[in-house]
């Protein structure tokens, strides 16, 4: 694809966004990675990234086992002393059903949750995120693939370096403790 064609297609996508119903979505796990989100949505999601946002009064945890990924996957849990960094998207409403399927909403894996997200001094209200319905009692480690896609999304979308290191250390710690238990 030539540069001119790419610019024209990008311009056309942005023009269609002006006339299409949209919704805000906060991703904190594998959906932070626009490349992985594209795999599910069937279209490029880079254009829908607003940027790195903050969810206050929640913390991350691996409180769900994903049969699809065969590992622990991320969840957010209310915690007045914590914050979660993630990616704020403005997605076309036509992608809503695909996103719900990705998050296993029809089978009770996650449910939609409306939250407020801080982004560059502005608060976005009624932003969709997803929370696990039936949480595990203890965190379960991610596999290497999930670990990498979450970290790639965090770095690609420019989450704070300190937060990325904390995320890395948390996931690595879970993997290390799982290896110790299984040996």
Summarize the structure.
This protein is an alpha+beta fold.
Write a structural description.
It is globular and about 55 Å long. The protein has five helices and five strands. The strands form two sheets. A three-stranded antiparallel sheet has the order 1-3-2, covered by helices on one side. Strands 4-5 form a two-stranded antiparallel ribbon. The termini are far apart. β2 (49-66) and β3 (71-92) form a beta hairpin. It has a single domain, classed as Hypothetical upf0131 protein ytfp, CATH 3.10.490. It has helices at residues 3-19, 34-41, 96-102, 144-156, 161-182, and strands spanning 22-27, 49-66, 71-92, 110-119, 122-132. By secondary structure, it is an alpha+beta fold. Helices cover 37% and strands 37% of the residues.
Could you report the average pLDDT, rounded to the nearest whole number? 91
Number of helices: 5
Biggest pleated-sheet summary: 3 strands, antiparallel
Our count of domains comes out at 1
Order of helices and strands: HEHEEHEEHH
Q: Class by helix and strand content? A: alpha+beta
Helix share of residues? 25-40%
Morphology call: globular
Radius of gyration: 17 Å
Strand order of the largest sheet: 1-3-2
Number of strands: 5
* Annotated CATH architecture: Roll
């Amino acid at each position: 694809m030539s540069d001119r064609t790419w610019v024209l297609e990008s311009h056309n996508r942005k023009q269609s966004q002006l006339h299409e119903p949209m919704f805000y979505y906060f991703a904190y796990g594998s959906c932070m990675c626009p490349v992985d989100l594209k795999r599910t949505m069937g279209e490029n999601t880079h254009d829908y990234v607003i940027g790195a946002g903050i969810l206050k009064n929640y913390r991350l945890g691996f409180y769900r086992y994903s049969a699809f990924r065969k590992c622990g996957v991320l969840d957010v849990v209310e915690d007045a002393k914590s914050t979660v960094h993630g990616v704020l998207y403005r997605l076309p409403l036509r992608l809503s059903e695909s996103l719900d399927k990705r998050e296993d909403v029809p089978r009770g894996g996650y449910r939609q949750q409306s939250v407020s997200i801080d982004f560059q001094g502005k608060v976005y209200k009624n932003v969709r995120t997803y929370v696990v319905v039936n949480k595990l009692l203890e965190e379960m480690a991610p596999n290497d693939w999930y670990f990498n896609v979450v970290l790639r999304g965090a770095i690609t979308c420019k989450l704070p370096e300190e937060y990325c290191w904390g995320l890395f250390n948390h996931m690595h710690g879970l993997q290390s403790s799982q290896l110790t238990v299984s040996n």
